[in-house]
């Protein structure tokens, strides 16, 4: 992948977390536990992430995690919450922040590789990261590999500044109304193609 392919990054969250995120930024899991919030995380995945350490760096839960493309297995698993979740759009300049790490697939995966931001972008397979679908009916192992790669991550130490949040996507009119009722400064649009 080339840096020019990364026009924005994504963070999946409950709409009712947005005011707190605008006040405090997108926090690492460890920092977020200090604030009241609505979690969209899957507990079984968090169990894997909790003790995973990035070689030569910190624990996964010490990093705020962003996706290259939120149209991924995580968002698919949360389709029952489409009326109450959003995808925050993050300026790609976050890749230039100190200590940012790129995971070439879901960071909790057994086969993940971690890179500096620039090396990580080069290592990613653009076609797989931005693929519309990750299934493979003929080969379940290939399907698992593609599913993991589709969830490639940008890991930012501690937090992502709210100054880097440039907008939001929601799935439908109901979610748009919930988001707009918050009265935030963020531009928000319905992007049903991103959701499931």
Keywords:
196 residues, 4-stranded mixed sheet, 4-stranded antiparallel sheet, alpha+beta, nucleotidyltransferase, 10 strands, glycosyltransferase activity, 8 helices
Describe the fold and architecture.
NAD(+) binds at residues 11-13, 49. This is DarT domain-containing protein. Pfam families: DarT (PF14487). GO terms for molecular function: DNA binding; glycosyltransferase activity; nucleotidyltransferase activity. The protein has one domain. 28% of the residues lie in helices and 22% in strands. It has helices at 18-24, 29-32, 43-50, 73-77, 117-123, 126-129, 140-150, 173-180; strands at residues 8-14, 26-27, 63-67, 85-91, 101-103, 114-116, 153-157, 159-160, 165-170, 188-190. The strands form 3 sheets. The chain has a 4-stranded mixed beta sheet with strand order 1-4-9-10, with helices on one face. The protein has a 4-stranded antiparallel beta sheet with strand order 3-7-5-6, covered by helices on one side. The protein has a two-stranded antiparallel ribbon with strand order 2-8. β9, α8 and β10 (188-190) form a beta-alpha-beta unit. The model has no long low-confidence stretch (mean pLDDT 95).
A few lines on this structure:
This protein is an alpha+beta fold and 196 residues long.
Q: Choose one word for the global shape.
A: globular
Helix content: 25-40%
Q: Which strand-content bin applies to the residues?
A: 15-25%
Question: From the helix content, strand content and strand pairing, which structural class follows?
Answer: alpha+beta
User: What is the overall pLDDT average?
Assistant: 95
Radius of gyration, CA atoms, in whole angstroms: 16 Å
How many E strands?
10
- The total number of structural domains is 1
Catalytic activity: a thymidine in DNA + NAD(+) = an N-(ADP-alpha-D-ribosyl)-thymidine in DNA + nicotinamide + H(+)
Family: Belongs to the DarT ADP-ribosyltransferase family.
GO molecular function, one term: nucleotidyltransferase activity
Pfam family, one: DarT
């Amino acid at each position: 992948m080339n840096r020019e392919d990364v026009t924005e990054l994504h963070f999946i969250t409950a709409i009712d977390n947005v005011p707190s995120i605008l006040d405090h930024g997108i926090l690492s899991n460890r920092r977020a536990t200090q604030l009241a919030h609505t979690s969209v995380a899957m507990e079984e995945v968090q169990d894997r992430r909790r003790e995973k350490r990035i070689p030569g760096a910190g624990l996964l839960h010490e990093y705020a995690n962003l996706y290259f493309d939120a149209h991924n297995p995580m968002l698919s698993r949360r389709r029952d919450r489409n009326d109450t979740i959003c995808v925050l759009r993050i300026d790609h300049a976050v890749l230039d922040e100190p200590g940012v790490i790129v995971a070439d697939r879901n960071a909790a995966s057994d086969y993940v590789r971690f890179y500096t931001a620039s090396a990580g972008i080069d290592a990613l397979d653009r076609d797989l990261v931005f693929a519309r679908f990750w299934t493979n009916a003929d080969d379940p192992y290939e399907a698992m590999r593609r599913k993991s790669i589709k969830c490639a991550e940008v890991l930012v130490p501690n937090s992502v500044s709210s100054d880097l949040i440039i907008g939001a996507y929601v799935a439908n009119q109901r979610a748009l109304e919930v988001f707009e009722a918050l009265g935030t400064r963020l531009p928000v649009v319905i992007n049903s193609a991103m959701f499931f």
